[in-house]
Fold this sequence. Notes:
2 copies of one chain form a homodimer. Chain A is of the alpha/beta class. Chain A has 10 helices and 10 strands. Chain A has 2 domains: 84 residues, Leucine Dehydrogenase, chain A, domain 1 (Rossmann fold); 124 residues, NAD(P)-binding Rossmann-like Domain (Rossmann fold, 3-Layer(aba) Sandwich), CATH 3.40.50.720.
Amino acid sequence: MIIDGKKIAQEILLYLKDEVQKLDTKPTIAVIIVGQNPSSKIYVNLKQKKAIELGMNSIVIEMQKDTTQKELEDKIDELNQNPEINAILVQLPLPKHLDTYKIIEKIDPIKDVDGFHPQNVGRLSIGLEPYSTSCTPKGVIRLLDAYNIDIESKNIVIIGRSNIVGKPLASMLLARNATVTVAHSKTLNIRAITQRADIVIAAVGSAHLIDSDWIKDKAVVIDVGISKSPEGKLLGDVDFESVKDKASYITPVPGGVGPMTIAMLLENTLHLYNLQKEQK
Amino acid sequence: MIIDGKKIAQEILLYLKDEVQKLDTKPTIAVIIVGQNPSSKIYVNLKQKKAIELGMNSIVIEMQKDTTQKELEDKIDELNQNPEINAILVQLPLPKHLDTYKIIEKIDPIKDVDGFHPQNVGRLSIGLEPYSTSCTPKGVIRLLDAYNIDIESKNIVIIGRSNIVGKPLASMLLARNATVTVAHSKTLNIRAITQRADIVIAAVGSAHLIDSDWIKDKAVVIDVGISKSPEGKLLGDVDFESVKDKASYITPVPGGVGPMTIAMLLENTLHLYNLQKEQK
């Protein structure tokens, strides 16, 4: 069965649009983009377009690629202090001369729409509700729930240990009582590990790494990876054609996890808006 | 081979004592204990005794068991602001009417000697150096290193997912390139999982849960669990007699991980002292 992320995301966006219409002011997300990375520009434009469709405000702040650490931190301070800004997103990757971690730590945790601030990551880990949680892992779990796929007591193998996907996803799944294994580039005999998993979640960014040999019969396969073929086609970590008949559920690329990420981003924006309102 | 935690801890304490003697002022740890839990009192006394042996200051603050949330938070604020206090430890468990998480979040992260503050937990997770890290997991890794037991690419199964041991240990081992599985009370067929592990780390608190059937030949077995027999004897999670001939390395209880925890606590105290000095 193919998991239709596009459809689930659409339902969430419609719900959010309704919720936003009930508000007396518009939730506002500020997106900072440094330099001219073409993929980043595409993502930022897409986020802005969707935010506006929902009736939110979206402000895009374009900064030169030679922006200094201090200039970027000052900009974040300014946004932190501006009560009209509810959510701050710094589009990654940043140019190499900038310290990404320090930038993220500069964002007020209550405006950290990506859930990357250590305060939010730490709260997620210890089971205290964070202001927001990382969008892609949150989207993965929402997909599993939408299709009533059990998480509790399942053996789940996450391939990839990034701060954006693998690690927060491990925290979230553990909190949902899964038995979680995190595998990665230094894992030996990785297939022997994924073959035992009830659910395999691939978040590596290596095109078509995973074929049907990697999974057991009826496994659930979630594909978070995105890479591009030389012809510019979007490719997942999973060889969909090879795996689709063996898996019980599988997400396609595109149209699987991708659309959920942006839906979760806008859900986080609304959530932060509400939290800030409560605090006033 | 039996891992001698007592000996390794002793070496660390001797090293710390030397380092403390070189300082012009004494690192100071403040330990707050609320109520009269007898085990807590024993632990607090032990920590104080060891700190003083190393030439540190140790202040124990005893508060009534009906202390309010506000009184405890105010006390922490006072310690946060006192420049003579380098490290703050709130002895757990707290009486039920107090919100442990909120108390921990109140501690200034640079004085959080247990590494429990979300900021420190989050930094550990994302690979940014925390001010301090949880003592027991740090002690476990130090033991593995002391015996030159490889961590990279090993399949490591942690049993138990507490905020104090299981979760931070998973972060640390993942950062050391292990393939990490976290199992717990909701894990099914747990023996099938531990039987495949190169290293099994038990942190459950269930006396002699693990016997030789749980582990593969030559596995490394680390026992973090502590419970008490009806006669008051300290028991680990591992049935030592059953496992010792099958394992390649094993920690005893007592004399394994326990002594390391307190050594790491005092190492953290010195580290926080040095960090605070640098910031002045």
